[in-house]
């Protein structure tokens, strides 16, 4: 179990080390998707809770911190 998790983290860090802007870009896409959902009427839970907005900000900040570390 731990060996598989360690291998997953190694693969992810190697992948993200060469693509430093991927997570911040994904965060921007999630924030823009939240904006579009808020403009459309009747979108329900996603539009009311701003889930994509919060998730986008967290992913973007995590991506910036990770890019700085790698």
Number of strands: 0
- Overall geometry comes to elongated
**Unreliable residue stretches:** none
How many H/I helical runs? 4
| Helicity, as a percent range | over 70%
Main structural class? mainly alpha
Major sheet:
none
Order of helices and strands: HHHH
Distance between the termini: 25 Å
Count of separate structural domains: 1
Quick synopsis:
The protein is an all-alpha fold and 70 residues long. It has helices spanning 2-18, 22-39, 45-49, 51-69.
What do you see in this structure?
- This protein is mainly α and 70 residues long.
- It has one domain.
- The protein is built from four helices and no strands.
- It has helices at 2-18, 22-39, 45-49, 51-69.
- Helix 2 runs antiparallel to helix 4 (51-69).
- The chain is elongated and about 45 Å long.
- The mean pLDDT is 87.
Explain the layout of strands and helices:
Layout: H1 2-18, H2 22-39, H3 45-49, H4 51-69
Helix pairs in contact: 2-4
Short descriptors:
70 residues; mainly alpha
């Amino acid at each position: 179990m731990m060996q598989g998790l360690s291998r997953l983290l190694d693969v992810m860090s190697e992948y993200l080390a060469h693509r430093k802007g991927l997570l911040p870009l994904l965060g921007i896409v999630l924030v823009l998707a939240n904006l579009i959902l808020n403009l459309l009427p009747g979108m329900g839970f996603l539009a009311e809770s701003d889930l994509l907005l919060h998730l986008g900000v967290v992913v973007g900040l995590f991506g910036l911190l990770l890019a700085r570390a790698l």
